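Worked example 2:
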Amino acid sequence: MKGWEQIYAHHSNGTPHRVQFAGIETILDAGEEYPCLVVYLGKDGDQDIKGYLPPSELGIEDASMDDLLFMLKYPIPVVISKIVRESNIVVYSRNIALNRMKKILWENIEVGQVLEGYLLTKVHANKTAYVDVGGAVIMVPPGEITWINNIVYYDLQKILPQFETVKVMIIEANSEKQTITGSLKATQKDPWQNEYQEKFAPGSIHTGIVTSELPTGVFVKLESGLTCLCPRRGFIQNKIPHKIGDTVIIKINKVDVERRRISGKAVSDQVIDVQDNVLNYFETAAASG
């Protein structure tokens, strides 16, 4: 009976809570069939207790099968609108939950507030992200997603996988337009202040992949998704292939924290081998001396 106790507790307080629905079932209501989201809530004897979310309660006008399938991908906010105990059925409403959460959100919203939500969709090709915080979807513009400058769309997909739980800081809220703008990177430690300066210290050697070439230089993507600009002459003088997609070795020259930029130069395998041999020589001499 523990399942029913929890169900009645949710029903009596009316507080929205998130439910991960398991699938879609077709039910018959007033002679018509409707596809509904379904979740299994436990057992009453040998009978399953099922929770249903009908299309009319999704909070989406003229909800389609695609809308239902989308809702299966992450936990969505709902309230219990009806209990049919004799049939072991619980009916949910996302529409009521969103209205309640929206009211509470706008009554308490403040710039600088940090909320938790789900990355609702894949990061768009224009590098804009959207986070569902319940009662509102927060738009995160390109400059507020990550501390990494000029990150490519493919790398953003790896940093922010769809439907992951994320924290977002509110940077603008327009009550008239009912729009909220947020920042993901404001909830994260700025890696340029310490981590990147140590990891990519001047003189350090790194492997990267050529992403583009301009008259001014060659851009090489390093680990962590950062990009290093290297003069073309280093590739040409050392006869290093540098087509897009080529793996190359570079030596860091400078880390510009203020401008969020890294510069370096291409080096050949032979240079690395010579440096390693010299280092090994001195280490051996120091150990024997």
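The radius of gyration is 27 Å. Residues 269-288 form the longest helix (20 residues).
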